[in-house]
Design goal:
The structure holds three protein chains of three kinds. Chain B is an alpha/beta fold. Chain B is 38% helix and 22% strand. Chain C has one domain: Thiamin diphosphate (ThDP)-binding fold, Pyr/PP domains (Rossmann fold, 3-Layer(aba) Sandwich), CATH 3.40.50.970. In chain C, the strands form two sheets. In chain C, strands 2-1-3-4-8-7-9 form a seven-stranded mixed sheet, with helices on both faces. In chain C, strands 5-6 form a two-stranded antiparallel ribbon. In chain C, α3 packs across α4. The chains are: A alpha/beta, B alpha/beta, C alpha/beta.
């Protein structure tokens, strides 16, 4: 297969089309606008739909309608825009609808900045809208993974009937790397796989209703409880992480997405300096790969969580380790990218400290 | 073996394109490559830069902080990056626009009046490519014959007339 | 002798609407049009948030419940993914002309090929009678206890007149259901909207002046009179735009 040099944003868009995404609804915002631009160019040529919505709120509600009708569809945005979409995400979760949402994160809060950030981890994994619910969250760290996990996100969103998010950042969205697509073919998912879809009953079945309103408290409770039982199945089936040189590592760095690459460079430098360092990189952020993180840290004396935020994933790392190991934090925020040399410095400091 | 390069200059000088050319040259040699641009208001007239990594093994950080090679096309970029070049590394400087002499003695620096050369040879806007020619000569990353197919891939067909101009600019750089 | 039957496009679920509320009439008119056009199997309806929030239980076609004000965006998503299906929204004044103004205006200006049924009863019925964007000057509501004062609360929105200025709108018509003659006209307008959609002519909106006896504090008959005497002068009935866009 051909290696294409593409921006992360473009790879996401092309992979979505090949995964059978038929409709894209978006609104321009830096640093993800290449996704819209690519879709605007490509979608009409493959019989798909690109529509620039009047707002982020409208875009996610268009996705809600389109997904209700059983069509594979998506939207993408960056941090401030994702906040606006939270209404629609909650409704989709409450109506058990699949879709893919891309967040190419930038610095916040508020209007923040436009440089890369990871400060929406909590939003993605904890509270992308009101109510009791979760969404699938994937954190690619290469342009190739942007393509691979986009396809996977569509498949798993359909399988579990829940929204899935690709949580990337400005660095991954803007950088170019070689990417190879699994196939040149555009997939056409079978509409019969979605018997719940509101796409016209054709006088062949009872009418379908897509809805999240339940005025009887007990009825709503029961639905939410059932949904959480499904989440338990998701948790048991879906948990991915990459472990790099962790087998004998004294110091394990935990990082995801683009930061994991910076951390990997730091880990290599640490090894060159004689420090037994390793990296564990969660790929699924919800469900969080607890077992993988625990296993990666089995011989560790200390753990260093590195993020482009003030420290959000660190809570999941501590929980995965049952707080049995000291977990330190190093992060830059506001759009500042941590230098591998600075991460190396932290590794050296922790190595000096040794076990607690 | 990994070569990390920073291209930096004003928006509009073609530093992002020069970086892309290098990345595509690496791609065509089946190397691992990454190209990371600065983005935002910088694209609209301010300073722009990009990091390019070429490697035989998977690339960790695509964000270059200590380049093996620096191409600096204006004063602010030179000031920003010259101290970060690795000892033993290479700095290729557009001396038409960077007036300061390079004082670092632990790197190989080349002052090339590429903007003036481009104008002289009737190649406006090709100062960046002249500097890429010099980069190829000093690093041996690619021979000139390998560049044409890469340019053909990178330049859209409706601008195919630019391929010859690019080749000419490269040759100027490689001859220096 | 024709028999008076419930339209097939309505389910057997009893309406929850208050006595004298005109939602029931409008539901029936929409269902009759769906029956007469034979499109129940190809129609997807979008419900609002408001009194008609549970309309998904009443229509026999596929139904989607939208977030407050987002029905035109949801309808856009359905229609773009399924251009050969019929898509209608059923929305109240708060939903369509306050929280959902942006979605309404932009679906209209895009010429989105959908039909919007707009119930204007000058009040938020579901939450107990607060001021709506269409509440008349001087009208007393829970949140305008001294009457709507335009100097404080501004002026009511004339939705059809506003949307009629947009190029994407194929039909903007205001009707009411106060008496049999007007009910027949309302049905004809709804039919026209669906026909326009069938012919892919663009966005159609049928505004139905409606009553809310409960929140207006009137008997159903008094409410009908109040509508005719107060609403019709401010919101004149008629066609504000009609013509093929595409």
């Amino acid at each position: 297969m051909e290696r294409n040099l593409m921006k992360g944003n473009e790879a996401l868009a092309e992979a979505a089309i090949r995964a059978g995404c038929k409709c894209f609804f978006g609104y321009p915002i830096t640093p993800q606008t290449e996704i819209s631009a690519y879709m605007a160019k490509r979608m009409p040529k493959v019989g798909g739909v690109f529509l620039q919505a009047e707002s982020e709120v409208a875009a996610i509600n268009m996705v809600y309608g389109c997904a209700s009708s059983g069509v594979r569809c998506m939207t993408s945005s960056s941090s401030p825009g994702i906040s606006l979409k939270s209404e629609g995400v909650s409704y989709m979760a409450g109506s058990d609808l699949p879709c893919v949402i891309v967040n190419v994160m930038r610095g916040g809060p508020g209007l923040g900045g436009i440089q890369p950030s990871q400060s929406d981890y909590w939003q993605a994994t904890r509270a992308l809208g009101h109510g009791d619910f979760q969404i699938l969250v994937f954190a690619p760290s290469t342009v190739q993974e942007m393509a691979d996990y986009m396809e996977k996100a569509f498949d798993l969103a359909d399988k579990y009937r829940m929204p899935a998010m690709i949580l990337a950042d400005g660095l991954l969205g803007q950088m170019m790397e070689p990417v190879t697509f699994r196939s040149d073919e555009i997939r056409h998912p079978d509409p019969a796989d979605k018997p719940w879809a509101t796409n016209g009953h054709g006088n062949k079945r009872k009418h379908n209703i897509v809805n999240s309103l339940y005025l009887q408290a007990e009825e709503l409770e029961e639905l939410v409880v059932q949904r959480f039982k499904r989440y338990e199945i998701v948790k048991s089936e879906l948990h991915e992480a990459e472990c790099y040189r962790t087998e004998d590592a004294d110091i394990v760095v935990a990082a995801y997405g683009s930061v994991a690459r910076l951390a990997k460079s730091a880990v290599d430098s640490a090894r060159d300096a004689g420090i037994k360092a390793g990296l564990v990189r969660p790929i699924t952020l919800w469900p969080f790969p607890e077992q993988e993180v625990k296993a990666a840290c089995k011989n560790a004396k200390r753990v260093l969580c590195v993020e482009m935020s003030m420290g959000q994933m660190i809570e999941d790392v501590k929980l995965a380790l049952d707080c049995r190991l000291p977990v330190d934090f190093y992060g830059r925020t506001g759009g500042v990218i941590p230098k591998p040399s600075a991460i190396l410095e932290q590794i050296k400091i922790l190595n000096e400290k040794g076990a607690e | 073996m990994t070569t990390e390069t920073i291209f930096a200059g004003f928006g509009g000088q073609g530093v992002l394109f020069a970086g892309k050319l290098l990345a595509y040259l690496g791609l065509n040699q089946d190397k691992q490559v990454s190209w990371l641009p600065s983005y935002g208001p910088e694209m609209r007239g301010g300073t722009a830069n990009c990091s390019v990594c070429l490697s035989d093994s998977p690339i960790g950080s695509p964000y270059v902080t200590e380049p093996d090679v620096l191409i600096a096309m204006n004063g602010p970029s030179y000031d920003k990056f010259i101290e970060s070049v690795k000892p033993g590394g290479i700095a290729i400087i557009d001396s038409t626009l960077v007036t300061k002499e390079c004082t670092r003695t632990d790197i190989h620096s080349f002052r090339i009046p590429s903007t003036a050369l481009a104008a002289e040879h009737g190649l406006p806007g090709m100062a960046n490519i002249i500097l890429v020619g010099k980069l190829l000569k000093e690093t041996g990353i690619a021979v000139i014959d390998a560049v044409r197919p890469t340019l053909e891939k990178l330049i859209p067909p409706k601008k195919a007339n630019l391929i010859e101009a690019n080749m000419k600019a490269l040759a100027i750089g490689m001859a220096l | 002798m024709p028999e008076f039957r419930k339209p097939h496009a309505l389910t057997d679920v009893p309406f929850h609407y208050c006595p004298g509320c005109t939602h029931g009439i409008v539901h029936r008119l929409v269902a009759e049009v769906i029956d007469e056009m034979g499109i129940e199997g190809d129609t997807i309806g979008i419900c609002p948030v408001g009194c008609s929030v549970m309309a998904y239980d009443y229509f026999n076609c596929d139904m989607i419940e939208a977030a407050h004000g987002r029905a035109p965006a949801v309808a856009t998503g359905v229609k773009r993914g399924n251009p050969d299906k019929f898509v209608f929204t059923y929305q109240g004044d708060g939903d369509l002309a306050a929280i959902g103004t942006a979605e309404t205006v932009h679906a209209a200006t895009r010429g989105e090929n959908i039909t919007v049924i707009f119930i204007n009863n000058t009040t938020y019925g579901m939450t107990g009678g607060q001021m709506a964007p269409t509440t008349l000057p001087g009208q007393v509501t829970q949140t305008t206890p001294y009457g709507r004062n335009p100097e404080v609360e501004g002026y009511p929105v004339r939705v059809c007149e506003m949307l009629a200025t947009l190029s994407g709108v194929a039909l903007a018509e205001r009707v009411t259901v106060t008496d049999p003659a007007n009910i027949r006209k309302a049905k004809a307008a709804i039919r026209k909207g669906f026909e326009f959609q069938k012919n892919k002519q663009g966005f159609s909106i049928i505004e139905v002046l409606s009553t809310c006896p409960t929140n207006w504090g009137m008997s159903p008959v008094e409410a009908l009179s109040w509508l005719k005497e107060n609403m019709v002068p401010y919101y004149p009935l008629g066609v504000f735009k009609e013509g093929a866009v595409r």
